[in-house]
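Section 5.1 Outputs to date
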Amino acid sequence: MTWNPEQYNLFSDHRLRPAFDLLSQVPLNAPTFIYDLGCGTGHITSLLSQHWNEAIVTGVDNSAEMLAKARADHPSLEWKQQDIGSFSPTSKANLIFSNAALQWLDNHEILFPKLLTQLRPGGVLAVQMPNNFNAPSHENLYDLARSPEWYDRLGSLVRPAPVHKIDWYFELLSPLVEKINIWETTYFQVLKGKDAVLEWTRGTALRPFLAALKPEEAAIFESQYAERLLQAYPMRQDGATIYPFSRLFIVVQVAGG
């Protein structure tokens, strides 16, 4: 499965806003080593470098396509192709920042404590994850994939919601850290165009399902999904579609700072 940087960046304004909201809550003045996990095309990595221009900032992602775009747009920064689930840097971090990436990984009860071990004393783990898996955009996708027409090819791709409730993360992390800040925000995103929500999901949730199909099958599946989305998210007379999107934020600081 490959990523399409251009498709993902169609809604860069909406995708960047949560990163700014997360960054505003990081309680560090002058971190030295920063890692951006799931850096994608590198926009946020560049923002981190601009915010702390004396820091060594490294973007980490497993997508060669995304990193090629990141290197082309931001050649002065450091980039590393690696599965973020096995992240283990040579130099431990003052800040591990991850915007909309960790939801692709399972076993958060193992992943999050492991990431804490990669922090220096006083270091911060700052995470934002989409928490929209029960929204009509996602439920319709999963229901269609589990329908008799598609189940044999796509049913196995439907996974339980990877992001837990706020209290689950609080119970997991609070014994391991000195400071903890967790919140959830629902963004009422105004998207333009008839198939605006379809275009959004093409860059993220829809990708693995289309990748599992032959091109002619993918076109049929996408058309059926588009019909469902237009019913769930009707376009307004002014051409806009309101797409509510919930996101979970976690900022924790380990002892020693």
